[in-house]
Write a structure and sequence with these properties.
This is Glucosamine-6-phosphate isomerase/6-phosphogluconolactonase domain protein. With 107 residues, this protein is of the alpha/beta class. It contains four helices and three strands, in the order H-E-H-E-H-E-H. The chain starts with a helix and ends with a helix.
């Protein structure tokens, strides 16, 4: 994991220094959860980070299989970030409404 975390640190530092912000896409899964559990220890300016979910399951809000719940418990609850920095996929709304929400995010 340390190689992956080192690369994330290197890229995030570069982007913050040159662009003022760092954007990262999050995913679900056991490997990702291991990374998120360690990512919270990075020395960085978290106010410059913006988090986007690349996938989510269409399950009820707060469901144990929800990727957003996993990331919340393994990363976000430990970071000084606010909701304006986090772009979740509202899978609990169902596939059609999720598509509409994603399309509007980029318009």
């Amino acid at each position: 994991m340390s190689g992956c975390l080192s690369k994330i640190k290197e890229i995030s530092d570069y982007k913050i220094q040159n662009n003022g912000v760092f954007h990262i896409v999050l995913t679900g899964g056991d490997t990702a959860q291991l990374i998120y559990s360690e990512l919270k220890y990075l020395k960085t300016d978290w106010s410059k980070w913006f988090f986007y979910f690349g996938d989510e399951r269409c399950v009820p809000e707060g469901h144990v299989d929800s990727n957003s719940l996993m990331v919340q418990k393994s990363l976000f609850e430990f970071l000084p970030v606010n909701e304006k920095q986090i772009f979740m996929i509202p899978g609990y709304l169902g596939a059609k409404k999720v598509l509409w929400n994603i399309q509007n995010l980029f318009n």
